[in-house]
């Protein structure tokens, strides 16, 4: 059977749905029929098209990685399909596809939490670009995940790279901090009982990736392609 993407490009939604059945059968397991009905009967055409495009991208990512997809738990799969149905931004659609591809990868070392689709659904394209910029900065600095909370990106530098105003930057980082993906600058105070406490400062002069943020971004990146 031809791939979902080819079927969608050649003959449209009906043929693409048939091509998607086999792929859905692998990632949805025994619930494939129910998932298929959800796709076919309970969403509008534009949402269905978004889902098909995302499934086509995920299928190609797995093919490029040389991976045969495994079943994805429904509590992760269903929110993922629903979130992707509403996504019209191509950059974010790729993240939805990558999240599905990683979730469907057998024995993947990545941690795919059921909350990840919900987090992704609350990101704007601008949020995702800033998050990627901070992530790429940490990689450029050669920081291990455990060091990311200690060393982050400078507020002014990120604003300049992203060509954002202070108001735009604060709006984005407030959302990223709210979702637990990033943390702002903090101060450590010592109390009489010698237990340190960290307090969040309003001034986000330095923005860093949390451990949750690291796992989330990694899960939303395309699996490595098969070198052979």
Describe the secondary structure blueprint for this structure:
Elements (H helix, E strand, L loop, with lengths): L3 H8 L1 H16 L3 H10 L3 H21 L8 H12 L4 H14 L12 H6 L3 H16 L12 E2 H8 L3 H13 L3 E2 L2 E5 L5 E5 L5 E4 L1 H9 L9
Antiparallel strand pairs: 1-5, 2-5, 3-4
Helix pairs in contact: 1-2, 2-3, 2-4, 4-5, 4-6, 5-6, 8-10
Q: Runs with pLDDT <50, length 5+?
A: 186-192, 198-203
SSE topology string: HHHHHHHHEHHEEEEH
Cα separation of the termini? 23 Å
Looking across the biggest beta sheet, what order are the strands in?
Answer: 1-5-2
Number of domains: 2
Oligomer: single chain
Q: What helical percentage do the residues reach? A: 55-70%
Number of strands: 5
Main beta sheet, described?
3 strands, antiparallel
Mean pLDDT: 80
Q: What is the rounded Rg?
A: 20 Å
Overview of this structure, please?
It is a single chain. The protein has 228 residues and is mostly helical. It folds into two domains: 4-107, no CATH class; 125-219, Orthogonal Bundle (Arc Repressor Mutant, subunit A). 58% of the residues lie in helices and 8% in strands. The protein has eleven helices and five strands. The strands form two sheets. It has a three-stranded antiparallel sheet.
């Amino acid at each position: 059977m031809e791939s979902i993407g080819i079927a969608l490009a050649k003959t449209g939604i009906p043929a693409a749905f048939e091509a998607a059945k086999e792929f859905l059968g692998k990632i949805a397991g025994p619930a494939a029929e129910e998932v298929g009905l959800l796709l076919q009967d309970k969403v509008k055409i534009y949402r269905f098209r978004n889902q098909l495009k995302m499934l086509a991208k995920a299928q190609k990512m797995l093919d490029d990685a040389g991976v045969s997809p495994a079943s994805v738990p429904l509590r992760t799969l269903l929110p993922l399909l629903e979130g992707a149905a509403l996504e019209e931004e191509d950059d974010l659609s790729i993240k939805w596809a990558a999240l599905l591809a990683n979730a469907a990868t057998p024995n993947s070392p990545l941690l795919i939490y059921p909350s990840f689709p919900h987090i992704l659904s609350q990101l704007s394209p601008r949020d995702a670009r800033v998050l990627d910029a901070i992530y790429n900065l940490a990689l450029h600095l050669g920081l291990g995940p455990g060091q990311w909370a200690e060393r982050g990106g400078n507020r002014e530098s990120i604003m300049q790279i992203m060509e954002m105003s202070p108001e735009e930057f604060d709006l984005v980082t407030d959302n990223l901090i709210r979702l637990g993906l990033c943390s702002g600058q903090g101060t450590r105070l010592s109390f009489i009982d010698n237990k340190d406490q960290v307090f969040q400062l309003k001034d986000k002069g330095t923005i860093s990736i949390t451990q949750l943020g690291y796992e989330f971004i990694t899960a939303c990146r395309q699996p490595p392609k098969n070198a052979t």
